[in-house]
Amino acid sequence: MSRFFRLIAFLAISVALASTFYLQEKPVHAAGDDKTNGREMALEAKGRDILVIDGDTIMIDGLVADIAGIDAPELGQQCLHNGSFWDCGMSSAMQLRKYFAMAPFTVRCWPGDREHSGKDDDFPIVECGIGERDVAAAMVSDGEALPIEGYSHRYDGLSEEADNAGIGIHGGDMIPPNEWRSGKRLDGENARCLFTVDGNGHYLGTLDPRYKDASALKGKSTCSDEQARAEGLSYAPMKK
Predict the structure, then answer these.
(1) How far apart are CA 70 and CA 88, in angstroms?
(2) Over the stretch 189-199, which tens digit does the pLDDT of each residue have?
(3) For residue 142, which of 176, 96, 100 has the smallest C-alpha distance?
(4) What is the mean predicted confidence (pLDDT) over 119-146?
(5) 22: three-class secondary structure by DSSP
(6) What Rg, from alpha-carbon coordinates, does the chain have?
(7) Which whole-number Å values give the CA distances from 9 to 13, 16, 78, 162, 169, in the listed order?
């Protein structure tokens, strides 16, 4: 009889552990065809209509927002691979733009979990899905972004896999994006600030088709989306 009760106890513990693991690894709600996430309606756009500002910031349906749960290299950031510098920040942004440009389904974005976002300000954060594909998870898996600690255990696991395989930013030396924004650089890295201020309280990045005209004004530059927002600037809205 004691063996029977020990077996029941063992099974109960196993089920509890499995349930905990499932809840931790459960994907965020970005992917899927449902237009709602709880009571929140999704923003929707065709992939080619989404403006990629940098590797974790987009404009969708007129709203500028950070993609929740990830931190990508800044647009002007460089990484070191096999003794040579490469534009890992631009690579990250271009990969994100590629996801959207080639999206076979409508892109949907929902408000993200602000409590676990790692963000101190009230800037919008969104979880975006293309069909069943979670965009943030894809960026982490492809070594184009780092997970924000505590947002999703799924992202942590995907980042470990990318790190073990030496994929993308894991294949060389990189200053963590938050430290890069604070001014830290790799030895020999070219300091580049790829956002320009248009003189009207707005800023634009180099991936924006309006950048060339704005930069011709020879206004000041800023090094990151976060820095621009901290200076009280907002991203230049699209004209309707």
Answers:
(1) 15
(2) 987 899 999 88
(3) 96
(4) 93
(5) helix
(6) 20
(7) 6, 11, 54, 37, 45
d(CA 196, CA 215): 6
Integer CA distances (angstroms), 139 to 55, 72, 74, 98, 184, in order? 9, 9, 14, 11, 23
Tokens of 239: 């004209």
Q: How many residues does the chain have?
A: 240
* pLDDT one-digit tens code per residue, 44-68: 999 999 999 999 999 999 999 999 9
State the Cα–Cα distance between residues 181 and 206, nearest whole angstrom: 17
Place of tokens 């956002």: 195
Sign of the C-alpha dihedral, residues 16, 17, 19, 24? positive
- Secondary structure of 65-122 in HEC code, one letter for each residue: EEECCEECCCCCCCEEECCEEECHHHHHHHHHHHHHHCCCCCEEEEECCHHHCCCCCC
Name the percent of the chain lying above pLDDT 70. 81
3-class DSSP assignment, residue 188: coil
pLDDT tops 80 at residue 174: yes
| Nearest by Cα to 196 from 226, 220, 230 | 220
DSSP-derived secondary structure for 127-176: EEEETTEEHHHHHHHTTS-EEPTTT-HHHHHHHHHHHHHT-GGGGSB---
